[in-house]
Structure formats: structure tokens, C-alpha cells
């Protein structure tokens, strides 16, 4: 990379180097850009990171594994998918991060998710490196048998690359406890060992209590911390949530328990508006619909009179105090952000990974609204995954109270780190700056200590 004469780094030059090296990877380029915009000024004040080429090394995965997944569907047709595991960084611990099964999965998306994961995992204070994997397999409209067959075929290659001391996958979009069960079964059969090689297992056979709830609960703990900084509370606040999968479900549950009024949820077909706010009854219906029946969100409106369905729309126009995007990347753009700002929303917290575009984030920060990036506010999932690894390694299970207490404590610590590294001169807390610098310092210092490897 071309260096400026004074040996400082330049954002535009770095991005042109990165984009040239990673063409056709827009999501990866976007995730790195968001990070280097705050990191490069910091690195220029701390030249050891530039001298050791930490950014250049951190943006080059340690290893990229891609493989063929061939399997036979229920109609005896041969299906071919592509499997991936991208091992980004192991400076502070074994690679750790989820598996995503979705037709959109490609190298760019997994590199962006893995890059985010490295910084997120560092923020937790647990000894976890970062990675991500998955497949372009589409679980929709597949039978249980097809899902099991696919998971077994996927693990038949992945097993040789992972392990409890090497790389520990978990769930993400399209991978929940059912898929983790099939993946674990195949891993155990091939390796002939019962170890914590995956997290998100069911609590009856090595999983941690609260792992299912962890990302959503953690998101709400983080929101509570953010609101605290402006002397506000969740009680009675209106909340817009996108998604109706794992993260959205437990974000909604904890918001409900905190006496907030949840107005919306969604899936890729549209959103529902709940007049009067979500109730336990409606939430239970959604959990059953999504987790057991694999139904569409429209069915909630068919069942409850106060629920209305808006096909092919996102919920961002709905006026609310708090906005929690919990579905997928780039689901909220600058035009949506402008509406949210004009609605006098006070807090946006990302439950999903990178759901807001860079321009949307800039819009929120320009308006000095509380905004938290996913690597801080959705870290609860990997936190409890880390706690599951601890329990597996000593072959013991903690109570849900113990796990939830530790989750809350770690989410509070992450918030403290954001405040420490991200508070601006005018008192505004820049959570993007805070989380990126705090995560980076931890990984970068470990990389320097371990030499050029
Ligand atoms: P799920 O598969 O359980 O749910 C995903 C939800 O998002 C569904 O409602 C789905 O709708 C919707 N969705 C997915 N893709 C799209 C799309 N392209 N457009 C619109 N809606 C879409 O996944 P999770 O809840 O686990 O993950 C959600 C987000 O949270 C992801 O960004 C993930 O990376 C992140 N995350 C997950 C963690 C975890 O522990 N599971 C931890 C931290 C972050 P539909 O069913 O119609 O596809
Ligand atoms: O994005 C994420 O943090 C996850 N999908 C969870 C990762 C994990 O290892 O639990």
C-alpha cells in the first residue's frame, strides 16, 4: 500500500487498497469502511499499530475454507450447495462465530460478518477469536429430513476444520437449535468425541441456559444502559422491531418484560403493526409460528383483530421512541433514517449485524440520537456462547440466574467501554467509535505481542 511521507495512514488510500484486494465484496468493504473511519485517526495517534500493519493484517482472514456440499433431497434429486468457514482472527482465542444458512450467503457477506465478529468478541472480554461460516442453502420449504440431510453433509467436511480448541461455530440466520442439533450429532459421530465443538446446543445435552434468549436480552440491557445516559427508561416507551427470528423474538420478550410497548415485528414478506402493543399471548403465537411451524408473519394478523399486516413493507415509518432493527444487513437506509429522525426517535440499537447503512448511521449521529452498532448491542449471543464453552470445559451447567447475571454484567462492561473510548467533547457518546477502538486495541495488542504470524 502506498504510504504517505509522514507514515500516517489515510482513509481514502486504505479503502482503495482494500477495495482493490477484495473486489466484488461490497458488504465486506462496507463493514471495513465503517470501522476504519474511526480507527485510522486513532492509529495515526498510536503509530505502533501502523508500524505493525495491524489493519492490513486484520482485514486479511487467517484462513478461508470453501467446500462442496452435495446431498439428496426428498425427491431423490441431487442438490449442490457451497459451504464456507472463514477464520478471521485467532489473536485472543479460538475462532468463534455463527453459521448462516440463507440463499444470499457468499464470501463477501461472511467476511463482513467475521470481521465484525472479531471486534465484537474482543469487546466481551472473553478469550474468543472471530470467524463466520455457512452456506447458500435455503432452509425455507425444506422438510425436516432435508434439513438433517443437509446439516450432515455440511458437517461431513466442516468437522475436520473445527474443534473446541480451534474453531467453535454457533447459529445465525437460518441456523437455530434444531440445525445445531443435527450438526453436533454428525460432528460427534465423525470425531467420536463429546466436546463443546459448537455452541447453541440444547441445555439437555451440553447447551447453556439463556443462550436462546441471549442476543435479544442483551440488546435490551444495552438499550437500558444507553437510555440511562440521557436519564430515560424503557418503561412506557414505544418500540419498533424488525424481524421475527431469534434475535427479534427475545428482544421483544425482554422489551415486554421491561414494560415497553412493542408496535411492530416483521419477516421478509412484510411487517405487522400491533395496535395497543405486543402482549404475551401474541408473542407466544409468534414464537410457535416461527419456531415450530415455520409460518409467515401475516398469519399473526389473521389471528388477532388488533394486528394489521403490511405486505412487502418495512416498519420504519411507524413512529416510535426506540427502533431496534433485528433482521438482516442493510435493511435500514438513509431515507428510512431521515424518517426515524423526523419521528423524534431517541434511540436506535442494532440487534442484527450491520442493519443500518453507513449513510443511515451518519444521519443518526448528525442528529445526536443514541445509536449503537451491532458489535456492541448484539454481543449477548456470543457472550453466552462463551459462557457455554466455559461450562462445557468443566462439564458443568450453571442456573439460568447465574448465566443471566453474567450476561448482564458483560453487557454493562461493553457499554462502559463504549463510553470510555467513544465520549466526544460535547458529551455525545459515539458508540461506533467507542466499540471499534475498544475492540481493536485488545486484538491489535495481542497481535503485536505474538509477532508476525
Ligand atoms: P433468524 O433466522 O432466526 O431470523 C431472521 C429474521 O430476519 C427472520 O424474521 C427473517 O425473515 C428476517 N430476514 C432474514 N433475511 C432477510 C432479508 N434478506 N430481508 C428481510 N428479512 C430478512 O436469524 P437471527 O434472528 O438469529 O439473526 C438476525 C440477525 O441478528 C442477523 O443479522 C444475525 O447475524 C444477527 N445476530 C444473530 C445472533 C444470534 O445469536 N442468533 C447473534 C448476534 C447477531 P424470513 O423468515 O422471512 O426470512
Ligand atoms: O453474530 C453473532 O454474534 C452470532 N451469530 C453468534 C455467534 C456465536 O458464536 O454465538
What does this structure look like?
The protein is of the alpha/beta class and 453 residues long. The chain contains 17 helices and 12 strands. It has 3 domains: 4-58, no CATH class; 63-194, Leucine Dehydrogenase, chain A, domain 1 (Rossmann fold, 3-Layer(aba) Sandwich), CATH 3.40.50.10860; 214-372, Rossmann fold (3-Layer(aba) Sandwich), CATH 3.40.50. The strands form 2 sheets. It has a 7-stranded mixed sheet, with helices on both faces. The chain has a 5-stranded mixed sheet with strand order 1-2-4-3-5, with helices on both faces. β1 and β2 (78-89) form a beta hairpin. The structure holds NADPH dihydro-nicotinamide-adenine-dinucleotide phosphate and (2Z)-2-iminopentanedioic acid. (2Z)-2-iminopentanedioic acid (2IT) binds at residues 96-98, 117, 120, 170, 172, 199, 353, 381-382, 385.
Given the structure, what is the number of helices? 17
CATH topology of the largest domain: Rossmann fold
Number of domains: 3
- What distance lies between the first and last C-alpha atoms, to the nearest angstrom? 19 Å
The neighbouring-strand order within the major sheet is: 9-8-7-6-10-11-12
Structural class: alpha/beta
Q: Give every kind of bound small molecule, once each.
A: NADPH dihydro-nicotinamide-adenine-dinucleotide phosphate, (2Z)-2-iminopentanedioic acid
Quaternary structure of the protein? single chain
Radius of gyration: 21 Å
CATH superfamily of the largest domain: NAD(P)-binding Rossmann-like Domain
Order of helices and strands: HHHHEEEHEHEHHEHEEHHEEHEHEHHHH
Query: What's the rounded overall pLDDT mean?
Result: 97
Amino acid at each position: 500500500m502506498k504510504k504517505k511521507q509522514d507514515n500516517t495512514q489515510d482513509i481514502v488510500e486504505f479503502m482503495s487498497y482494500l477495495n482493490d484486494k477484495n473486489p466484488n465484496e461490497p458488504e465486506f468493504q462496507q463493514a471495513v469502511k465503517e470501522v476504519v473511519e474511526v480507527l485510522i485517526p486513532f492509529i495515526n495517534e498510536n503509530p505502533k499499530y501502523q508500524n505493525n500493519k495491524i489493519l492490513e493484517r486484520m482485514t486479511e482472514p487467517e484462513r478461508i475454507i470453501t467446500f462442496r456440499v452435495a446431498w439428496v433431497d426428498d425427491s431423490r434429486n441431487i442438490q449442490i450447495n457451497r459451504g464456507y468457514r472463514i477464520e478471521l482472527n485467532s489473536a485472543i482465542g479460538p475462532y468463534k462465530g455463527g453459521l448462516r444458512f440463507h440463499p444470499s450467503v457468499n464470501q463477501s457477506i461472511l467476511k463482513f460478518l467475521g470481521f465484525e465478529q472479531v471486534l465484537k468478541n474482543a469487546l466481551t472480554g472473553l478469550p474468543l477469536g472471530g470467524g463466520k461460516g455457512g452456506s447458500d442453502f435455503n432452509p425455507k420449504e425444506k422438510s425436516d429430513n432435508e434439513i438433517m440431510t443437509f446439516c450432515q453433509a455440511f458437517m461431513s467436511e466442516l468437522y475436520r476444520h473445527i474443534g473446541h480448541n480451534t474453531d467453535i461455530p454457533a447459529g445465525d440466520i437460518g441456523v437455530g437449535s434444531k440445525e445445531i442439533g443435527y450438526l453436533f450429532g454428525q460432528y460427534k459421530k465423525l470425531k467420536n468425541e463429546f466436546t463443546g465443538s459448537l455452541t447453541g446446543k440444547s441445555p439437555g445435552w451440553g447447551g447453556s441456559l439463556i443462550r436462546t434468549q441471549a442476543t435479544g436480552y442483551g440488546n435490551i440491557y444495552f438499550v437500558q444502559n444507553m437510555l440511562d445516559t440521557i436519564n430515560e427508561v424503557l418503561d412506557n416507551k414505544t418500540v419498533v422491531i424488525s424481524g421475527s427470528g431469534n434475535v427479534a423474538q427475545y428482544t421483544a420478550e425482554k422489551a415486554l418484560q421491561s414494560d415497553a410497548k412493542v408496535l411492530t415485528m416483521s419477516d421478509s414478506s412484510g411487517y405487522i403493526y400491533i395496535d395497543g402493543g405486543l402482549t404475551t399471548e401474541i408473542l407466544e403465537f409468534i414464537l410457535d409460528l416461527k419456531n415450530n411451524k415455520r409460518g409467515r408473519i401475516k398469519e399473526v394478523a389473521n389471528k388477532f383483530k388488533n394486528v394489521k399486516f403490511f405486505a412487502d413493507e418495512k416498519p420504519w415509518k411507524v413512529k416510535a421512541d426506540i427502533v431496534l432493527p433485528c433482521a438482516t444487513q442493510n435493511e435500514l437506509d438513509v431515507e428510512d433514517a431521515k424518517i426515524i429522525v423526523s419521528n423524534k426517535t431517541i434511540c436506535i440499537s442494532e440487534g442484527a449485524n450491520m442493519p443500518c447503512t453507513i449513510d443511515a448511521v451518519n444521519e443518526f449521529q448528525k442528529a445526536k440520537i443514541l445509536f449503537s452498532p451491532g458489535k456492541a448491542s448484539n454481543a449477548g449471543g456470543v457472550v453466552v456462547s462463551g459462557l457455554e464453552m466455559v461450562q462445557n470445559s468443566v462439564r458443568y451447567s450453571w442456573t439460568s440466574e447465574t448465566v443471566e447475571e453474567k450476561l448482564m454484567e458483560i453487557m454493562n462492561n461493553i457499554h462502559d467501554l463504549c463510553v470510555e473510548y467513544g465520549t466526544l467533547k460535547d458529551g455525545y457518546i459515539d458508540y461506533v467509535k467507542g466499540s471499534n477502538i475498544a475492540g481493536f486495541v485488545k486484538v491489535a495488542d495481542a497481535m503485536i505481542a505474538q509477532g508476525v504470524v
